[in-house]
Specification:
2 domains, six-stranded mixed β-sheet, four-stranded antiparallel β-sheet, 37% helix, binds adenosine-5'-triphosphate
């Protein structure tokens, strides 16, 4: 049987007294594309940030490709992971954020090469070749020597995607990748994400307000509410299905708002 590439097991998260995630069990299979949908404040970003190692767990475990992310096994017991272990397991995870997070003092090429050289210890020449090929793929090879400030938001986001992809992650997390973009730049970024999704091998976790896009790309939708996944299934199974009323209510409210 195929093992999940990501496994959340009874994951809870509190901020002080506020419980944001409530004992979530959730698997992502290799190559699976999962969209997280739900009302504002329902915990989607927090759920993804635990996998990005940007927030720590309150309880439960997360495994990536069979390895514990936040824990290590020592003498048959699970203990808190060392920062070295966390760094190692995190290498399987690629992240793309709303606000690009490119290094402003590095050129586009240097941004894409940086983690390959410093984290993966790829020789510079090889990293340069891999990076240029990836920039070509996202349509930005001719911008290799410019600085991020000289790029449009859509171009910056495509560089951020290239930078994540060269690390060959097993899972890519897209957290609102188009929310900071002017509307006319959204399409070019979605197109790249769609291309990557169609290549198939990599699992994806996608948080977005681009509902049509999410429904098109996702193999599975997880609908969040109140810190739990209250409905899930493929878009085909869920859309207009009376057994998944929460998603359908959400989508009809969403469509009504967008057509105003
Ligand atoms: N660092 C933090 N400290 C305290 N509370 C937080 C923190 N981060 C998130 N929260 C709270 O956790 C809850 C879930 O937030 P989260 O951002 O995960 O929701 P979301 O579903 O992603 O919402 P949105 O769609 O608006 O981004 C909210 O009530 C939020 O205010």
């Amino acid at each position: 049987m195929t093992e999940p590439i990501v496994r959340y097991n009874q994951v809870s998260k509190y901020f002080g007294d506020l419980q944001v995630l409530n004992k979530i069990d959730f698997d992502i299979m290799p190559g699976e594309k999962v969209a997280l949908i739900g009302p504002s404040g329902s915990g989607k970003t927090t759920f993804a940030r635990l996998l990005m190692t940007l927030e720590s767990l309150s309880s439960g475990t997360i495994q990536v490709d069979g390895q514990y992310l936040w824990h290590e096994e020592k003498d048959g017991k699970l203990v808190k992971a060392s920062s070295k272990h966390l760094r190692e397991v995190r290498q399987n995870i690629g992240m793309v954020f709303q606000h690009f997070h490119l290094f402003p003092h590095m050129t586009v090429l240097e941004n894409v090469m940086e983690a390959q050289v410093t984290v993966k210890k790829t020789p510079e020449k090889e990293a340069e070749k891999i990076s240029k090929d990836m920039l070509d793929k996202v349509g930005l090879l001719e911008k290799a020597d410019v600085y991020p400030a000289q790029l449009s938001g859509g171009q910056k986001q495509r560089v951020a995607i290239a930078r994540a992809l060269v690390m060959k992650p097993k899972v890519m997390i897209f957290d609102e990748p188009t929310s900071a973009l002017d509307p006319e730049l959204v399409g070019e970024v979605l197109e790249i994400i769609k291309e990557i999704a169609d290549e198939g091998e990599m699992a994806m976790l996608l948080i977005t307000h681009e509902m049509d896009f999410a429904l098109e790309v996702a193999d599975r939708i997880a609908f969040f509410d109140g810190g739990k996944i209250v409905e899930q299934g493929s878009p085909e199974q869920m859309i207009n299905n009376p057994e998944t009323p929460r998603l359908n209510e959400f989508l009809s409210r969403f469509n009504a708002t967008n057509s105003l």
